Amino acid sequence: MKTALIQGKDIPDFDQQIIYNLLVTKVEVDIAMQEQILVGIRNASREIYRIIGASSIKQFNNASEELEELGLRNELGENESGEIEQFKHIYKAIFSLD
Asked: Rounded to whole angstroms, what are the CA distances from 95 to 26, 29?
């Protein structure tokens, strides 16, 4: 898996746990975006600040389980609002604390 920070976005305190718990390689955003399955992580301002790219459904499932264990929830899995709909064509999941 690959991950990248989106420049200019606030990085939450829990970010270090994400890096610690997931086996990811830090890359530039354009490289992470080339992976088959993309996961967004939101900060307290509700901005996607980190992208995680997985090359297989197995990697995606492993990342999702680890993020859920950290207390994050997948917004795309439970919300059909217009705000979320706009991201579904890019991200398979968007995780946040709230």
From this structure: 18, 17
Three-class secondary structure assignment of the chain? CEEEECCCCCCCCCHHHHHHHCCCEECCHHHHCCCCEEEEEECCCCCEEEEEEECCHHHHHHHHHHHHHCCCEEHHHCCCCHHHHCCCCCCCEEEECC
The total of other beta-carbon atoms located within 10 Å of residue 60's CB is 21
The per-residue pLDDT for range 8-45, each reduced to its tens digit, is: 999 999 999 999 999 899 999 999 999 999 999 999 99
pLDDT above 70 covers a percentage of the chain that reads: 89
- 34 burial (CB, 10 Å; 0-12 / 13-18 / 19+) is exposed
Residue 89 has pLDDT above 90, yes or no: no
Q: Where are the domains of the chain?
A: 2-96
54 C-beta neighbours (distance < 10 Å), count: 25
